[in-house]
Specification:
The structure is a single chain. Helices cover about 35% and strands about 30% of the residues. It has ten helices and 14 strands. A hairpin with a 4-residue loop joins strand 2 and strand 3. Helix 4 packs parallel to helix 5. The termini are far apart.
């Protein structure tokens, strides 16, 4: 079956309404709709909608939904994307951690802290610089002191929660806004034998019941994006214990100072930065 993508670029102000219209028109029919930031400084965003059968697409309706943007059409090859992704995912080392798929179990060494994650519906296989950076930073921090209450905010596939649970054998609250991600996180925790330590829950930002019950946290890990991290600084401070630590990522190097300033205003100060490519992972503490 042929898959077709219609896509267009523009400023966020012009792309966001297109995304809303596409989602309203085609989302319930099962057509995936996405919006991606291509260049923050230049305000370049891309909106896309995907259809499984190119012959049944109402192109007039699609173009009307994109207006005033002019969409381009792309016919995608019939590929088993999951098999392709798994073939390309190589094991990733981050300190003592080794993040790998089932196809690479034989590469785990005796003293590795192995985290098995499959490419799936939730974000985070450990292969992005931000996830690997958080794991490495968490390993460094926990080697010096052992937190008692840990929050993995925006857990995705639960790579960070699983890593902390395996390393320290302490309970971790793992939350995400996406129910699908939470189901995948719970399955991954079970796969890795830490399901009794990792408590998964749906939560919007820092408003979830599990967060209220677990606060204040000695360690919070949040691999999200710079914008939301800065907006959440006051609420993050409210659930961070005195003397507690933050590990923040999803931050481009050029965004580092802005994030640090937002938390400095809450009495939370920079301790160290881990650089990986264009991305940084920050360790801050109160």
């Amino acid at each position: 079956m042929t898959q077709v993508r219609f896509h267009a670029e523009g400023a966020r102000a012009s792309v966001s309404p297109v995304f809303d219209r596409l989602d309203a028109l085609f989302g319930e029919e099962g057509a995936p709709v996405s919006m991606v930031e291509l260049d923050e400084a230049a305000d370049r965003h891309e909106v896309s909608v995907y259809f499984e059968d190119g012959e049944t697409v109402d192109t007039d309706a699609v173009r009307a939904a994109f207006a005033p943007l002019e969409p381009e059409r792309e016919d995608l090859p019939d590929i088993d994307w999951m098999a392709s992704v798994l073939a390309d995912l190589k094991p990733v080392r981050a300190g003592r951690f080794l993040v790998h798929g089932a196809h690479d179990r034989h590469k785990v060494r005796p003293h590795d802290l192995a985290i098995e994650i499959e490419a799936g519906q939730a974000f985070g296989t450990g292969h992005h610089e931000t996830t690997a950076g958080c794991l490495e930073m968490a390993g460094r921090l926990i080697a010096r002191r052992r937190p008692r209450r840990v929050l993995d905010l925006g857990t995705g596939s639960a790579v960070l929660a699983i890593g902390v649970a395996k390393l320290s054998r302490i309970a971790v609250t793992a939350t995400d806004i996406d129910p699908v991600a939470v189901r995948v996180a719970a399955a991954n925790a079970r796969l890795n034998g830490v399901h009794t330590l990792v408590r998964t829950s749906v939560a919007t930002g820092l408003e979830g019941e599990a967060i209220r019950e677990g606060a204040p946290f000695d360690l919070i890990l949040a691999n999200i994006l710079a914008g939301p991290l800065m907006q959440m600084a006051p609420k993050m401070a409210a659930v961070l214990a005195t003397g507690g630590d933050l590990i923040l990522s999803g931050i481009l190097a050029r965004q580092r100072r802005g994030v640090l300033a937002a938390y400095r205003g809450q009495g939370i100060y920079h301790r160290s930065t881990l650089w990986r490519g264009d991305w940084v992972t920050l360790h801050l503490s109160r």
